[in-house]
Amino acid sequence: MAIIEVTNLRKMYGSQVAVDDVSFAVEEGEIFGVVGRNGAGKTTTVECLSGLRAADGGTIGVTGLDPRRDRAELRRRVGVQLQDCSLPDKLRVREALRLYASFYDRPAPWEGLLEEVGLGPKRDTAFAKLSGGQRQRLSIALALVGDPRVAILDELTTGLDPHARRETWELIEAVRARGVTIVLVTHFMEEAERLCDRIAVIHRGRVAAVDTPAGLIGAVDGMLRVTFRCPPGSEGVLRSAPEIARVVRDGDEVTVTGGDDVLLALTAALSAHRIVPMGLRVERATLDDAFLAITGHAATDEA
Ligand SMILES: Nc1ncnc2c1ncn2[C@@H]1O[C@H](COP(=O)(O)OP(=O)(O)OP(=O)(O)O)[C@@H](O)[C@H]1O
User: Fold this and answer.
1) Domain contains 299
2) In this structure, how many other beta carbons lie within 10 angstroms of the beta carbon of residue 103?
3) Which of 36, 102, 164, 292 has a beta carbon 3.0–4.6 Å from 160's, enabling a disulfide?
4) Containing domain of residue 173, as a range?
5) pLDDT at 221 over 80
6) For residue range 155-190, what is the model confidence (pLDDT) as tens digits?
7) How far is the CA of 198 from the centre of ligand 1 (A)?
8) Does the C-beta of 42 come closer than 6 Å to ligand 1?
9) What are the residue boundaries of the ABC transporter domain, all occurrences included (predicted)?
């Protein structure tokens, strides 16, 4: 059953359209990814979901509530961690949790939550003295202190080193295992591929695709990429094989793409002509490739 339903969401900032026409549904218990480049409209979308912004058009249902009309009740059911969690420098970890718990009638036992997110040893540490990863753990704990059914996590691992990022991923999986539905905004494709059951790709304020990571990757033309070296021109024998979608030479190297049967077709065609592929390596398409195919852009400028 869908716990979140968004239909034709539209949001303007002055004359600028931030979210044009966004529709998707999130099933209970899912980790649902919202991915897109900077400025695609991800944060605006989740801010509308959490009642922090009023939409200009469309409808939103979160646990059956309208985020603007039923804001008070929504706050009890939805935990929100927004970009750039910032607290007063001197506020200690346990003080922050106790303070946030006081906002709710029936908060989660925050002492247990502290242990669960691995901040037990840091309970007396001031916010300013926490590392980036510890701050993110605290922001997750604060999003969960109201014992929500849905947690909205926005760019949770931006700025973390790979180790802290992996630890945060494990924490997110543990939160889902407690039955919390998670909406995860990210522009890290590896993160989305690893964590999410389904992903909405937002591009220029619209949903360009919604599917499982495997579904998005499977739709990429050329799921397998085989790279090798062979004498110049000899790769021509590959062009007639129907299983091979593309043959590209770049200097010494030839890259061949196609579906799951591309490797067999390639080795058969080469061996029939006694051509030995040197330094052969096979790579599977990733969510980065799928993102590029769907939007026409790499997910991040660095990618
Ligand atoms: N408060 C605001 N006032 C005016 N324009 C805004 C405001 N917030 C966002 N925008 C604009 O709306 C568009 C969508 O922004 P949004 O923050 O939703 O994108 P995003 O996908 O979350 O980007 P990022 O990954 O950089 O956080 C962008 O063009 C942005 O510049």
Assistant:
1) no
2) 11
3) 164
4) 2-218
5) no
6) 888 878 888 888 889 989 988 998 999 999 998 999
7) 23
8) yes
9) 4-229
